[in-house]
Amino acid sequence: MDEPDTEYGTPEGRAMIRLLWDPPPPPTRGPRQRLTLEQVVAAAVEVAATQGIDELSMRKVAQHLGVGAMSLYTYVPGKDELFELMIDRAWAGRRLPQRDLPWRAQVEFHAREAWRMYQEHPWLIRSNLWRMPLGPHVLDAQEDLYRAVALTGLPEATVSRVANLVESHVFGAARAAVTDTSVSARTGVTQDDYYESRSSFWGTYYTAGRFPTMTRIWEKGGFDEEYSDDTWEFGLRLLLDGVERLAAAGSGGPAGPDGSDR
Questions:
Q1: What span, in angstroms and rounded, lies between the C-alpha atoms of 144 and 115?
Q2: Is residue 85 a contact partner of residue 76, using CB atoms and an 8 Å limit?
Q3: 89 and 41 in contact (C-beta within 8 Å)?
Q4: What are φ and ψ of residue 154, in 5° steps?
Q5: What is the per-residue pLDDT for 227?
Q6: Per-residue pLDDT, 24
Q7: What pLDDT does residue 252 have?
Q8: How far is CA 193 from the centre of its chain?
Q9: What CA–CA distance (Å, rounded) separates 3 from 125?
Q10: For the chain, which residues score pLDDT lower than 70?
Q11: Is 3 helix (H, G, I), strand (E, B) or coil?
Q12: Which residues pair with 255 in a beta bridge?
């Protein structure tokens, strides 16, 4: 078997891939290292959880571990690389659905696991869905979501679009919820407080003539609902209803758990 070509990419990129997939073991010779890469990543996650992602720095992670900041560079090149490792570590907590479930139930399971992950690790809203780490835990979850969507029998390009839409929908809802919570905690001003402080708007600039649709929705109680998990799940249901219609139109009916037509 030929040896894999390791010269693709840049030296920095290859080093990052090795950290994600094959981190170096502690040296058997020389001075004994006090830490492991896993301990450094875990400490970074704790700093982000307790102090906020904006406060994450190599110095603060080192302080959390009780070591000098420069010693961390023995384990990871810098903060950006550390953040990639943190993301992959967080994704490791995502459970996978049972494969004997219908495709829709499996996709819904993935969405709820993503939502739970963002609630458990709110700092993840600073990640970029279009530049996710090529780590084992991220890719394992993505592979399984693609597999579940592919059970619809839809074309591969559509499978990719649907999977990306599901992840994007949950990410967007989580980002809104997490951001509002963090702003309230930082400023002491809740969402209700924010709008109450600007209530003069309604009697001075707001008119039903300019905003007739919003007025009608308000009068019918359409803005009364508090944000809850059901809010983002409503969007997920609409999304998957559309996928079901696509699958039915393309294959004569929704696919079963094994990918066959029901």
A1: 16
A2: yes
A3: yes
A4: -70, 160
A5: 66
A6: 79
A7: 39
A8: 29
A9: 38
A10: 1-6, 26-33, 185, 227-228, 251-262
A11: coil
A12: 261
